[in-house]
Structures are given as structure tokens and as C-alpha cells.
Design a protein that fits this description.
alpha/beta, GMP Synthetase, Chain A, domain 3, seven-stranded mixed beta sheet, 20 helices, EC 6.2.1.16, ACAS_N, Acac_CoA_synth, ligase, AMP-dep_synth/lig_dom
Length: 637
């Protein structure tokens, strides 16, 4: 078996520093003790294309304010397009309707023509290009073309409503807007012409609205829009030539990403080209073992940061496997069909997908040849201990399962998989190299055990440059640094394990506080969702009688009924599996549970509704109609 890149890197670090690194913990300690040397080695080891410059880290003890590689210049797209030839760069499956592949040479050609067309439309460095697109080859190519110019990319998925799109892109005033004509989901063809007719006139900064054909109506839709042009017409004047790359500073803006926006207008988080690139190649190559010739898949939409992470796989020479559509159409096998047919080596998905698969009767280990699959990653929410068991029992026995956690805020992970270390059920293996992750109590005291706030004590390259339209940095500072001075407070409720791993118990702002004791919602879900009748659960704290009481909502399997017997089963399970304090005061059945476009349940929005307060930005939800199920419930009055 080939030696893992992390093993090579540890040897390189030992040779470079003259220090012994007997284990991963020693390597991690060095990576945070000497961050300048560590990130310098990552740059060289991963073959970053660019001029590094003299200085490696300036004001390294300031957060925010630290500058990594302040003299460096590079181009993000150039680093992703180093490879050429006729091997696959992108392989795309659109539900069961479309299959396409682009070689590296074909990807270069498409990026070149898109680059010329964007320049012709007046796009210059620092301008924004916004996309409302499926996860398809044109989206990756348009992002690369945007980055090649030094312009800034921002994307969402086509299932967003007009208000959700405008709440995001209206803030950043894009020069060019790319959108599909429609998409496929769960066997349906969904035309978005009416949505585009509402969105495009409300983006007055546009010079072009480029409509990409997916369902075959782009040439009819484009002429109905101001500045509208079908992609084929947008590209028609331009022949493929060598892509030109604008050299940009390390901290040049690359992406604008958005907070979920379920409690207000989304925050516009600006990420740098150098910081994103360096952090992603570290995670994809070193932590995930993905390299030249590997076939990398993440089930994601273009509205989730995992799409940006997936795209960076090109920088290590991997083929990207792109999927757009429902993972359960027509029968739940499609992603494993894809893995089998395309010799997938890395399979990324959400904890909710693994849980749903576990609750179905599907067992890919018996139906699919997954011989090439080496690693499976799960994120979006904490992965339940039972889901760990299911992956090894029902998907593949000899696989590295990595539960990973980070976020849009850092366009990457704080904690993730560590090759060579054991995988313990219910635990994330450990912090990423170069990240001084810790768990603190409310007074800022580090906790060796017990639950507290997930923090990062030292600056790292993929911290945001800042927020858009936040000239004095006050909103950025308030989001992460108000809680603990000069320390990143991430907003996750976490604890260290005896194995040096971490457990994330949910968002700390959704933490329950009955009787003043902090409880993570994930601790409740891990128990309740093992009960066969329960498909999904959501817990909130309801203000009640000068305290907080735990209210649990459950979505039940078809035919199941929430009677006294099931309520007792749920309460007993929580009491024994978690603690008596976790037992809900009220348990209610609901037909649906609201979630964001990336599949995360929205505890805060439900809490607001239950308390009779408005939820400002329902457009951020995949199923906003579900919120009405929680309004004015007589059982909670």
C-alpha cells in the first residue's frame, strides 16, 4: 500500500527542523508552536505555484490582524489548473438524466473562453461574479475563470428563493450573474425562469446575466432578461487559448460566502486566495490522503462551503466527481452507483445522509463494489455513534471514516480525520495541523475534560479577511472575538475525549440551559434517533416559569404514533443514554423539521417561532413552510 502523504510530510518536517516527531501529536504541537515554519513547509511540500516572498508571518500573535505571507503573490486558479492532458478533470452526473466528463485540456479550454468573455463583459480584479448554479462542470470552470482574473466568486444553489438570492448577492453588487435555466431534483424538472425574472432586475450592478443550459431552455430564457445571454452566445466570439493568470497578493479576496441567515440577513464572509488554497491542500492532501489520480467526491450544493473545498481537489491533481440532484432518487443507490462506476477514492457527505441511509434498508456493502474507496468524510452536523457503526457494517469495513467540523466562517475544518490514528465511535479524531484548537469554559479556562466553547488560540491562514461592507471590522470582531480577547470563539459546544479527539455537541447558541446546566442538543439526538419509530428530532429550550425547559419535536416514521408508550420509550432512552437533565419536559410530533439548504436543522429559528418572535430570513431554509408547524402550539402555551 502506498505511503500516506501525512507520513511523508512528518518525515519532511523532521528533516527540515532536525526535531524528532515520534507521533502525530508531536507534529501537531510543532505546527502550532512554529506556525511560520509549518505553513512554509506546507507551501513547499504541496508545490504551491507563486512567489512566496521574504516574510512568512507578521503580527502572528494578533487575532484578527495576523498576516501570513504578506509579500507573496499567487493565483488561485493557476494552482488548480496545473495539470493538463486527456485524463478526467471533472466527471458529472445530474441525477439519472445527464452524464458528462471533461478532460484537463477541455477544462483549460472552457476556463480560457470564460475568462475572455468575463473580461469582455468588463470584469476586473476585485469585481464580483455571482452564480446560482447546480454543482456542474460549468460552475467549476466559471469559478476558475473568475479567480484567474483576480475577481471574487460567490455562489448559491438554484433551489434558493428570490429573496434568499437577493439577501446574499444584493449586498455584494455583482458585475456578472450566472444561472442555470432549471435543474432536476427527485425525478422532477424544475424550471427557474420565473425566479430569474424576479432576481435579475433587482441586481442593478449587472453587465451580463449568463444563462447556462441544463434543462434545455437557456436560449429562450436569456432574451427575456436585462443583459441576458445564453452561455453558448456569451462564449461564441472566443477561441480557447492559454489561460492568463493575474498575480494577486496572498490575502487577495477570492470568495464571498454567507452565514446561513436563519436569524437575520446573511453575513458576507470574505476569504482570501492564499489562505483558502493553503488550508485546503493541507486538509485534502495531508489529512485526507487525496493526491494525483485520486477521484474525489463530496455530496454538496454550490451554496455550501464543501463545494469550495471540493473544487480545491484540483490543486492536488485529483479528478472531481460532481453530482447534482437528490441522493435518494430513484432509490437511494445513486451515489454508490457513482462511486462504483467512477472508482471513487474519497466519498464526502453529510451526517444526515448517513443517518437516513442507516434508517433505510440499503446496505451498499452487499450491493456495490467499493474496492477503490479509501476514505469517507461526514460533516454538516455531529455524526451519531450509531452512524459510525453503520458505515463500517453497512458500507465498507476497511475504510477511514472521518467526522469533520469547521464551517463557512473558515471555509475549512478545525477538527477532522487524522490518518494512522484509530477511529473511535462518536468522536472526531483531532485538530487540523497548524490550528491551536482548545475547549474553554465560560471564564476562558482550558478544559481537559467536560463541555465548553470550541476556540482557536492562534491565528491561521484561512481566517476571513473580514466581512463585506464592514469598514471598521466591528461586525467581524463581534462575530468571533468579543467572547474571548484575541481568541477565535467558534460557537460550537465541544469536549475533549480521553483519546485526544473531540465531540461536538451542537452549536453553543442552541445549547439548552435547564436549571442552569448546559446541554448540547446532539446528545439528545444521538439517543432519540436510535429509536426505530423516530426519523429525526429537534430540541429547543423554551423559556418557562423563570427557567428553561427542554422541548423535543420528533418526526416519526410513517405509521408510527406518538402515544404515551413511545413518549416513555423516548424519555427512558434519553435518561439512561444521556442524563436525567436531558429528558424533555414536552415531546411533540411534527410532520416536518425545518433545515437550511445544506441540510442543517435550524434550532434557533424554531426557538424564535415557539416564543412568538419573527424569523427574519426564511428564504435561507430549504423548507420554510415547516416553520408554521411550530407556531402557536397549544401544548406549549
Amino acid at each position: 500500500m502506498a505511503v500516506h502523504p501525512m507520513t511523508h510530510f512528518r518525515a519532511a518536517a523532521a528533516e527540515w527542523t532536525g526535531l524528532p516527531f515520534p507521533d502525530h501529536e508531536a507534529l501537531h504541537q510543532w505546527s502550532i508552536d512554529d506556525r511560520a515554519a509549518f505553513w512554509d513547509l506546507v507551501w513547499d511540500f504541496c508545490g504551491i505555484v507563486g512567489e512566496k516572498g521574504e516574510r512568512l508571518l507578521v503580527d502572528g500573535d494578533r487575532m484578527p490582524g495576523a498576516q501570513f505571507f504578506p509579500d507573496a503573490t499567487l493565483n488561485f486558479a493557476e494552482n488548480l489548473l496545473r495539470k493538463s492532458g486527456d485524463a478526467d478533470a471533472l466527471v458529472f452526473w445530474g441525477e439519472d438524466r445527464v452524464k458528462r466528463r471533461l478532460s484537463w485540456d477541455e477544462l483549460h479550454a472552457l476556463v480560457s473562453r470564460l475568462q475572455q468573455a468575463l473580461l469582455d463583459a468588463g470584469v476586473t480584479a476585485g469585481d464580483r461574479v455571482a452564480a446560482m448554479m447546480p454543482n456542474m462542470p460549468e460552475t467549476v470552470a466559471a469559478m476558475l475563470a473568475t479567480a484567474s482574473i483576480g475577481a471574487i466568486w460567490s455562489s448559491c444553489s438554484p433551489d434558493f428563493g428570490p429573496r434568499g438570492v437577493l439577501d446574499r448577492f444584493g449586498q455584494i453588487e455583482p458585475t456578472v450573474f450566472l444561472a442555470c435555466d432549471g435543474y432536476y431534483y427527485a425525478g422532477k424538472t424544475i424550471d427557474i425562469a420565473a425566479k430569474l425574472a424576479e432576481i435579475v432586475p433587482s441586481l442593478p450592478s449587472l453587465r451580463a446575466a449568463v444563462i447556462v443550459s441544463y434543462i434545455g431552455t437557456a436560449s429562450a430564457v436569456a432574451p427575456t432578461l436585462a443583459h441576458g445571454v445564453a452561455l453558448e452566445d456569451f462564449l461564441a466570439p472566443f477561441q480557447a487559448r492559454e489561460v492568463q493568470y493575474a498575480a494577486t497578493p496572498f490575502a487577495h479576496p477570492l470568495y464571498i460566502m454567507f452565514s446561513s441567515g436563519t436569524t437575520g440577513v446573511p453575513k458576507c464572509i470574505v476569504h482570501s486566495a492564499g489562505g483558502t488554497l493553503l488550508q485546503h491542500v493541507k486538509e485534502i492532501h495531508l489529512h485526507s490522503g487525496v493526491g494525483e489520480g485520486d477521484r474525489l467526491f463530496y455530496f454538496t450544493t454550490c451554496g455550501w462551503m464543501m463545494w469550495n473545498w471540493l473544487a480545491s481537489g484540483l490543486a492536488v491533481g485529483a479528478t472531481l466527481l460532481l453530482y447534482d440532484g437528490s441522493p435518494f432518487h430513484p432509490d437511494g443507490n445513486i451515489l454508490f452507483d457513482f462511486a462504483d462506476a467512477e472508482r471513487m477514492t474519497f466519498f464526502g457527505t453529510s451526517a444526515k445522509f448517513i443517518d437516513a441511509l442507516h434508517k433505510s434498508s440499503l446496505r451498499p456493502i452487499e450491493t456495490h463494489d467499493l474496492a477503490t474507496l479509501q476514505m469517507m468524510a461526514s460533516t454538516g452536523s455531529p455524526l451519531a455513534p450509531e452512524s459510525f457503526s453503520f458505515v463500517y457494517d453497512g458500507i465498507k469495513r476497511d475504510i477511514h471514516l472521518a467526522s469533520i467540523s469547521g464551517g463557512t466562517d473558515i471555509v475549512s475544518c478545525f477538527v477532522l480525520g487524522i490518518p494512522g490514528k484509530p477511529v473511535w465511535k462518536g468522536e472526531i479524531q483531532g485538530p487540523g495541523l497548524g490550528l491551536a484548537v482548545d475547549v474553554w469554559d465560560e471564564d476562558g479556562t482550558p478544559l481537559a475534560s467536560g463541555k465548553g466553547e470550541l476556540v482557536c488560540r492562534k491565528a491561521f491562514p484561512s481566517m476571513p479577511i473580514g466581512f463585506w461592507n464592514d469598514p471598521d471590522g466591528s461586525r467581524y470582531h463581534a462575530a468571533y472575538f468579543d467572547r474571548f480577547d484575541n481568541v477565535w470563539c467558534h460557537g460550537d459546544f465541544a469536549e475533549w475525549t480521553v483519546h485526544g479527539g473531540l465531540i461536538i455537541h451542537g452549536r453553543s447558541d442552541a445549547t439548552l440551559n435547564p436549571g442552569g446546566v448546559r446541554i448540547g442538543t446532539a446528545e439528545i439526538y444521538n439517543q432519540v434517533e436510535q429509536i426505530p419509530e423516530v426519523l429525526e428530532a429537534l430540541a429547543i429550550g423554551q423559556d418557562w416559569d423563570n427557567d428553561v425547559r427542554v422541548v423535543l419535536f420528533v418526526r416519526l416514521r410513517q405509521g408510527a404514533e406518538l402515544d404515551d408508550g413511545l413518549r416513555k420509550t423516548i424519555r427512558d432512552r434519553i435518561r439512561i443514554g444521556a442524563s436525567p437533565r436531558h429528558v424533555p419536559a414536552k415531546i411533540l410530533a411534527v410532520a416536518d423539521i425545518p433545515r437550511t439548504k445544506s441540510g442543517k436543522i435550524v434550532e434557533l429559528a424554531v426557538r424564535e417561532i415557539v416564543h412568538g418572535r419573527p424569523v427574519k430570513n426564511q428564504e435561507a431554509l430549504a423548507n420554510p413552510e415547516a416553520l408554521a408547524l411550530f407556531r402557536d402550539l397549544p401544548e406549549l402555551a
